[in-house]
Every structure is written in C-alpha cells, then in structure tokens.
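Researcher: I'd like a candidate sequence for this fold, 282 residues long. If you have to choose between options at a position, lean toward the conservative one.
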C-alpha cells in the first residue's frame, strides 16, 4: 500500500528555500505564502539584490533572508529560481552544503534534469510556473528527476496544488507545453490586445478603450461558456461562425495566417532553447 506524506506536518517542519526572487521566483514565494501553503517562519530567501530581499522580508515578517550558502545549509526543499546562465555560479556557492537528502527544484527550462543530477548530490525536479499563479490559478508544469521519490512527487504536487493545477509531463514535451502554459498568458494577452487595436483602427470613431473592454469581457465569457457548457473550441466556432456570415468570413481570413504564425512561434522557441541548452555548462 502506498504511503503518503502528511503534508500538513511537512509544511510545519520543512525549511523551504528560494534562491532568486525576481519575476518568477518572487511570484512563486509570494503565492505560496499568501495561500498559506508554507509558513513564513520556515521560508528562506536568497537573492543577488539585497533590496528585493529587504522588501520581501518587510512584506512577510519572520521570513529568513540569507546567502546562497546559508540557505543551502538550512533548507530541505530548495527552489532554484535563477536563469540557466547564472545557475553554475549559484551552485558553486552552495556546493559544500548540498547533500543527497535535499530536493532541488529548478525553474530554468533550459537545464536538463540529467545535467542537474550529474552536477548535484540532491534529488532534483523541474518546475515551470505561470504568472497566473499570482491569483492561485493556471497550470504549473512539473518534471521529476530519476532520483526523485514517490514522496517527492506527492510533496511537490500537493504544495503546488495550493496555488495552481500542477501537471506532470515528460521533459521531452517541455517546449510546446511551456509555450502553452507559461508563455500562454502573454500570447493570449497579445492576441486580445492586437484584436482590440485593429478593431479600433478600422473605425476612427470607435474608442480604443471600449474595444479592449469588449475583447476582455468576451474572452472571459467565452472561457466560462466552454467550461460550464462543456463546449470545445470547434463547437464554439461552429455555433457562432454560420456559413456565409461575417464571422465565417473572418475565420477564413484568420485560417490563412494564424497557423503559420503559431508554427513560427513554436519552431523558433524550440531552436532558441536548444541553442541555449547546447551552450550550458554547470
């Protein structure tokens, strides 16, 4: 019979560290603390900029600020929230205090799990969060290293489940999955903004702020419709874009250009990531 860790006990006793509290690292620690997934007195943070550390400590009294080495010496669960290019120097500072009993989670998509496992004695995993975790929503992508235990899987999935919908994927799927889950909010926001801008430009008397409001409300309602009425995108299109109508004409125009644009997005991002991965040295 599988034995699960008591997460409520662990969150009281496990020191959890965050190395790097920039855009994603800062969002992650704040989301986990605000959701009470972690207790502040067991949270440690290290960062190159002391100003960001001071601001975080002021926001969450009781949080421990530390050097990278101090954090490694005191934490059982460590989130490495630095860019792939900075990981080597950060790990060098932590080397003497890392040990096999720790779980090290990188948020850098370009660092292969096997490379990280070869570099550190810890068990490892990879987490790709999304900005939507600021409101406790959206997908967080998880990839587990070969040394990670079933209890590690349970711990991370339970912890992240307090602020997201965690989905475990194979590392080989990471690039398209990251584009959809982590890059997706930016892509969707850009498409909505572009749609509103072009609608406003099509009629000089049409207020741009009204165009954006209509797009945002329509997007929100469409997602609710799909969820509540169990409708897939194809069915929504069929119901709205009636043959011979103006919406059908618009869909036809989009079909000539949008798929090619998405092909470029995923192809070029995959090429860029492969190039960065090939140059990576830990």
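Model: Candidate sequence:
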């Amino acid at each position: 019979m599988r034995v699960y860790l008591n997460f409520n006990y662990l969150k009281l006793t496990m020191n959890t560290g965050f190395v790097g509290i920039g855009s994603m690292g800062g969002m992650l620690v704040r989301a986990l603390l605000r959701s009470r997934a972690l207790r502040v007195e067991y949270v440690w943070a290290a960062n190159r900029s002391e100003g960001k550390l001071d601001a975080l400590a002021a926001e969450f009294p009781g949080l421990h600020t530390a050097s990278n080495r101090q954090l490694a010496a005191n934490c059982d669960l460590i989130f490495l929230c630095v860019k792939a290019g900075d990981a080597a120097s950060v790990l060098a500072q932590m080397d003497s205090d890392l040990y096999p009993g720790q779980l090290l989670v990188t948020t850098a998509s370009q660092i292969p799990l096997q490379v990280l496992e070869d570099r550190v004695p810890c068990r490892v995993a990879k987490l790709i969060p999304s900005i939507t975790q600021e409101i406790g929503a959206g997908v967080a992508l998880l990839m587990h290293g070969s040394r990670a235990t079933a209890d590690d899987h349970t711990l991370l999935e339970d912890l992240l489940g307090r602020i997201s919908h965690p989905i475990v994927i194979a590392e080989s799927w990471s690039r398209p999955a990251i584009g959809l889950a982590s890059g997706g909010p930016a892509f969707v926001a850009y498409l909505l903004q572009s749609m509103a801008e072009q609608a406003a430009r099509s009629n000089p008397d049409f207020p741009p702020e009204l165009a954006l409001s209509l797009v945002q409300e329509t997007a929100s309602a469409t997602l609710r419709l799909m969820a509540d009425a169990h409708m897939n995108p194809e069915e929504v299109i069929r119901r709205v874009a009636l043959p011979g109508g103006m919406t059908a004409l618009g869909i036809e125009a989009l079909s000539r250009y949008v798929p090619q644009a998405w092909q470029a997005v995923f192809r070029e991002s995959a090429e860029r990531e492969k190039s960065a991965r090939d140059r990576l040295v830990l």
